Amino acid sequence: MKAIVIRALGGPEVLGVEERPIPEPGAYQVLIRVAAASVNFADIKARQGRYHGAGQPPFIPGLDAVGIVERVGSHVTALSSGMRVAAFPSGGSYAEFVLADEKLAYPLPDAMSWETAAALPTVGLTAYTLLHDVAQLRPGETVLVHSAAGGVGTTAVQLARILGAGSVFGTVGSPAKASLVAGLGADGIVDYTQGAFYEQVNDWTEGRGVDVILDSVGGTVSEEGLACLAPFGRLVHFGQSSGSGGRITVSDLHASCRAVLGYSLGTARRTRPETLKPAAEAVMSLAAEGRLRMQVGRRYPLLQAREAQIWMESRQSTGKIVLIANETL
Ligand SMILES: NC(=O)c1ccc[n+]([C@@H]2O[C@H](COP(=O)([O-])OP(=O)(O)OC[C@H]3O[C@@H](n4cnc5c(N)ncnc54)[C@H](OP(=O)(O)O)[C@@H]3O)[C@@H](O)[C@H]2O)c1
Fold first, then answer.
1. For every one of its 329 residues, what pLDDT tens digit does the chain have, with 9 covering 90 and above?
2. What is the spatial distance between Cα 193 and Cα 14, in angstroms, rounded to a whole number?
3. 246 C-alpha to center of ligand 1: Å?
4. Nearest residue CA, atom 34 of ligand 1?
5. How far is the CA of 219 from the centre of ligand 1 (A)?
């Protein structure tokens, strides 16, 4: 099979194509013939040696893939060959075949296209879990989503609405991204590279601030979030696209009854895989019903994964980037 392999940490040039043997499933694993995988920002961090969940080279990058179960291990009970699944593979996903633990492979609704399914796993489960379980969004509450035009962002804006948010605001890194986010139902969008986003958010909320902030940027964006977080509000930190951590002062929290929370789907996958199923089922149903529309900005053949990562790293990409591994499935 063909696979994308990272032989050394570094820039996009370290992504190479290799011929590898098709792996054998272990007792609790399934072998999946991959239709498509997706590019996540974590793949770039992993390539640079800055992702907490990645190993050392050589490794196959990628967090999620969709395809058809080819073979199952001796102790697999919930899945059988021929089933269409979405999965979080154990050894990377940028490949024509991948292995996944049966607890991390989910049957797909029949009518769901490969493209929608490929866009869904990482960002769908993350956005849903952040809003539903970590922030525990309540009906009518206001939400601010940073990097709202990206993979997690476009999904979170829609899910916030679906889960009953009153108003949903988004930040974007360029004006060109604003119309996409407006089309997803956001009530206000601010280009946070051009000034103090928290002032705009405070204007929109008449000085009150928002109840929930989804922050995947870190650095000053995390710090400034507290300037527009309402009493009893929750700032959920789940990524560091900016490359730097922010500093939180605990005395900013207790009197206002506010909380700063953290979440990593990668950690949940590794340590509590069984907890992900309800979120997987929820987002798959929403997408199958057409209520959640996965935004696929670009598609690339698997073997052009390097170009796909360059596009994401350029900070111009919108929605999800999907890698097509097999056109004929
Ligand atoms: N904790 C978890 O479980 C989890 C799961 C999935 C994703 N994440 C995190 O969520 C974030 C979004 O992931 P994604 O895969 O959906 O990516 P994405 O949002 O589609 O793409 C990354 C976006 O980050 C923004 N960004 C901000 N500062 C940047 C910088 N210095 N360099 C490059 N991009 C920058 C850019 O959008 P703007 O310029 O418009 O802001 C860029 O388009 C990432 O931080 C990722 O690590 C966390």
1. 999 999 999 999 999 999 999 999 999 999 999 999 999 999 999 999 998 877 799 999 999 999 999 999 999 999 999 999 999 999 999 999 999 999 999 999 999 999 999 999 999 999 999 999 999 999 999 999 999 999 999 999 999 999 999 999 999 999 999 999 999 999 999 999 998 999 999 999 999 999 999 999 999 999 999 999 999 999 999 999 999 999 999 999 999 999 999 999 999 999 999 999 999 999 999 999 999 999 999 999 999 999 999 999 999 999 999 999 999 99
2. 30
3. 16
4. 315
5. 13
Distances (CA, A) of 82 to 71, 95, 103, 211: 8, 18, 17, 45
Ligand 1 center from residue 151 Cα (angstroms):
8
Question: How many angstroms does the Cα of residue 192 sit away from the middle of ligand 1?
Answer: 14
The residue assigned the tokens 């009493």 is: 231
The span from the CA of 316 to the CA of 170, in Å, is 16
**Angle at CA 172, nearest 5°, toward 170 and 175?**
120
Q: Which atom of ligand 1 is nearest to the CA of 320?
A: 20
Closest ligand 1 atom to residue 40 Cα is: 15
Domains, the chain, ordered by start: 2-120+295-324 (3.90.180.10), 123-266 (3.40.50.720)
The three-class DSSP label of residue 141 is coil
